[in-house]
Amino acid sequence: MERRAILVLIDGLGYETAIGRLGYMEALVAQGAARRWRMRAALPSLSRPCYETVHTGLTPHEHGITGNDMVRRSGQQSIFDVVREAGGTTGAAAFSWFSELYNHAPYDPVAHVEVNDPALAIQHGRFYTHGDFPDYELFLRAAVLTERYKPDFLLVHPMGADTVGHRHGGRSSQYANQALEIDKQLAVHVPRWRQQGYTVFVTADHGMDEHGNHGGAIDIHTLVPFYHVGHAAGGIAEEDAPQTAVAPTVLKAMGLRPPPAMRTAALA
After folding, report:
1. What is the distance between the alpha carbons of residues 159 and 210, in angstroms, rounded to a whole number?
2. 162 backbone dihedrals φ, ψ, rounded to 5°
3. Where along the chain do its domains lie?
4. What is the mean predicted confidence (pLDDT) over 74-80?
């Protein structure tokens, strides 16, 4: 496959915190090296439904994952499936719910924590089960996957912002500091991934309110950033974007045709 992509899905990082704390990403936008959209998360703005929306381009009403307690395999065609069907390889350094959605449900922490199986949707997976798993270590595992297996599509899913947000609230100093830590990791790894030939996308599943909650329709729950590093135009997009645009945008950047179910147009 000629074009490869990495999707960094930052769990629980709201839009305002992102544009205020992700200094490296905002520098790329200012320099014209990345384009940023304000994106509206699907409803309910919960993690498992939004994970599926990001990867299938369907709303929770359409794909059927409508709550965090719905532990089952996805029944839809995801980015992982499209890449594999085109002859590409896939990988993920991510929370165990992604293993449940696309590989095995329920998750067995011994059997599924590390997988290398060409028959799976996520062929090269490194999964974790605790929200306090350090973002630093998560990014290192993603870097190892790119060095060792060179997947055509790689999901990188740090959980630190969500964990800290639930514990201290989305207006807390701890939450802001966690966003700064994530930006530090992006500043280390994004340039390396770009040198390896990857187009890099950075977004979030949902935001976080001051009470440490999300799931509703208010802006602080639903507004998240979407960065396309390497976009030809760069800068800030004037229009907002729906979360259903993530999957077709990633596939388009890889030179792959989105399946018919992904009806939202790719972001230009």
Report:
1. 18
2. -65, -45
3. 4-253
4. 98
Q: What angle do CA 112, 115, 119 make, to 5 degrees?
A: 110
Alpha carbon distance 17, 223 (integer Å)? 10
Structure-block tokens of residue 187: 């500043």
Q: Is 205 exposed, middle or buried (CB count within 10 Å of its CB: 0-12, 13-18, 19+)?
A: buried
For the purposes of burial, counting CB atoms within 10 Å of the CB of 5, is it exposed (0-12), middle (13-18) or buried (19 or more)? buried
CATH fit for domain 4-253, picks 1.10.260.40, 3.40.720.10, 3.40.50.150, 1.10.3210.10: 3.40.720.10
Full DSSP string of 14-41: -HHHHHHH-HHHHHHHHTTSEEEEEEEP
SS3 98: helix
Q: What is the 3-state secondary structure (H, E, C) of 159-219?
A: CHHHHHHHHHCCCCHHHHHHHHHHHHHHHHHHHHHHHCCEEEEEEECCCCCCCCCCCCCCH
Separation CA 33–CA 21 (nearest Å): 18
How far is it, in rounded angstroms, from Cα 126 to Cα 114? Answer: 5
pLDDT single digits (tens) 20-71: 999 999 999 999 999 999 999 999 999 999 999 999 999 999 999 999 999 9
Residue with tokens 């069907």: 85
Instruction: Tell me how far apart the alpha carbons of residues 191 and 200 are, in angstroms, rounded to a whole number.
Output: 10
Say what the pLDDT of residue 1 is.
Answer: 78
